[in-house]
Amino acid sequence: MAARGAWRLLGSLWLALLLGRPGAAGAAARSSPHGPAGSAVRTFTPFYFLVEPVDTLSVRGASVILNCSAYCEPSPKIEWKKDGTFLNLVSDDRRQLLPDGSLLINSVLHSKHNKPDEGYYQCVATVESLGTIVSRTAKLTVAGLPRFASQPESTSVYRGNSVILNCEVNADLVPFVRWEQDRQPLFLDDRAIILPTGALIISNATDKDGGLYRCVMESGGSPKYSDEAELKVLPDPDVPLSLMFLRQPSSRTKVTGQTAVFPCVTAGFPTPVTRWTKNEEEFVREGSERFLLLAGGTLQISDITEDDAGTYACIVDNGNETIEAQADLTVQAPPEFLKQPANIYAHESMDIVFECEVTGKPTPTVKWVKNGDMVIPSDYFKIVKEHNLQVLGLVKSDEGFYQCIAENDVGNAQAGAQLIILEHDVAIPTLPPTSLTSATTDHLAPATTGPLPSAPRDVVASLVSTRFIKLTWRTPASDPYGDNLTYTVFYTKEGINRERVENTSRPGEMQVTIQNLMPETVYVFRVVAQNKHGPGESSVPLKVATQPEVQLPGPAPNIRAYANSPTSVTVTWDTPLSGNGEIQNYKLYYMEKGKDNEQDVDVGGHSYTINGLKKYTEYSFRVVAYNKHGPGVSTQDVAVQTLPDVPSAAPQNLSLEVRNSKSIMIHWQPPPAGTHNGQITGYKIRYRKASRKSDVTESIGGTQLFQLVEGLERGTEYSFRVAALTSNGTGPATDWISAETFESDLDETRVPEVPSSLHVRPLVTSIVVSWTPPENQNIVVRGYAIGYGIGSPHAQTIKVDYKQRYYTIENLDPSSHYVITLKAFNNVGEGIPLYESAVTRPHTVPDPSPMMPPVGVQASILSHDTIRITWADNSLPKNQKITDARYYTVRWKTNIPANTKYKMANTTTLSYLVTGLKPNTLYEFSVMVTKGRRSSTWSMTAHGTTFELVPTSPPKDVTVVSKEGKPRTIIVNWQPPSEANGKITGYIIYYSTDVNAEIHDWVIEPVVGNRLTHQIQELTLDTPYYFKIQARNSKGMGPMSEAVQFRTPKALGSTGKGSRPLDIGPDYKPPMSGSNSPHGSPTSPLDSNMLLVIIVSVGVITIVIVVIVAVFCTRRTTSHQKKKRAACKSVNGSHKYKGNSKDVKPPDLWIHHERLELKPIDKSPDPNPIMTDTPIPRNSQDITPVDNSMDSNIHQRRNSYRGHESEDSMSTLAGRRGMRPKMMMPFDAQPPQPVISAHPIHSLDNPHHHFHSGSLASPTRSYLHHQVNPWPTGTSMSHSDRANSTESVRNTPSTDTMPASSSQTCCTDHQDPESATASYLANSQEEETGPSLPTAHVRPSHPLKSFAVPAVPPPGSTYDPALPSTPLLSQQASGHPVHSVKTASIGTLGRTRPPMPVIVPSAPDVPETTRMLEDSESNYEPDELTKEMAHLEGLMKDLNAITTA
Question: What is the mean pLDDT of the segment spanning 956-965?
Answer without folding.
Answer: 91
